[in-house]
Amino acid sequence: MRNIFDRIGNFIIRIVDWFYFPFLHFIPREIFRYAATGGANTLLDIILYFVVYQYILQGQIVHLGFVAISGHIAAFLMVFPVTFTSGFFLAKYVTFTASELKGRIQLFRYLLSVGGSILLNYVFLKLFVEYFGWYAPLSKVITTFLVVIYSYVAQRYFTFQTGKRQVASRSRA
After folding, report:
1. pTM exceeds cut of 0.85
2. Residue 33: burial class (beta carbons within 10 Å; 0-12, 13-18, 19+)
3. In this structure, are residues 160 and 96 in contact, taking their beta carbons and an 8 Å threshold?
4. Domain contains 26
5. Which of 62, 88, 63, 65 is nearest to 75 (CA)?
6. CA distance 92 to 155
7. What proportions of the chain, in percent to the nearest 5, are helix, strand and coil?
8. How far apart are CA 112 and CA 114, in angstroms?
């Protein structure tokens, strides 16, 4: 199975790196890969969030019997498993390929760093929607951009750290 992920990762790397040339002198390869894959995953997150919030939940409160969850938070919780999975695989097999940590350690650390992202998402969505009265999908977009900075730092220096601070732009052989 890992061989399949490696091949898919290498294919995505070739595509992303093909677009890297104009940015060669401005952005390190790792940051470009993070921006490209993270941007794609973020776009997926925003589109799925909008569809779930607007068309599936129709902005309504979700009653689970023991708790009621607002539509904007329920949509976030429904979309999360999809973007968590795609985000981990893109980070592991495309962006932070120089990390020599075992996959299970990376996955656990990714879960921890994403936990911080969830907390920030929750706080910002509550703040923007319930206190500022902003439209939920717009609030989600703004929240996402704020969380991206935290996410990159957490993934780069914690989740997928390298033992000897290897060159970030090292390409896969």
Report:
1. no
2. buried
3. yes
4. yes
5. 62
6. 10
7. 75, 0, 25
8. 5
The number of domains in the chain is 1
Domain boundaries, position 136: 2-159
Residue 173 belongs to a domain = no
Tell me if 170 is assigned to some domain: no
- Which residues have a Cβ under 8 Å from the Cβ of 46 and sit 6 or more positions away? 137, 140, 141, 144
User: For every one of its 173 residues, what pLDDT tens digit does the chain have, with 9 covering 90 and above?
Assistant: 778 999 999 999 999 999 998 888 999 998 899 999 989 998 999 999 999 999 999 989 899 899 999 998 899 899 999 999 999 999 999 999 888 889 899 999 999 998 998 899 889 999 999 999 999 889 988 998 888 888 888 998 899 986 554 444 444 44
Q: In degrees, to the nearest 5, what angle opens at C-alpha 75 toward C-alphas 139 and 51?
A: 85
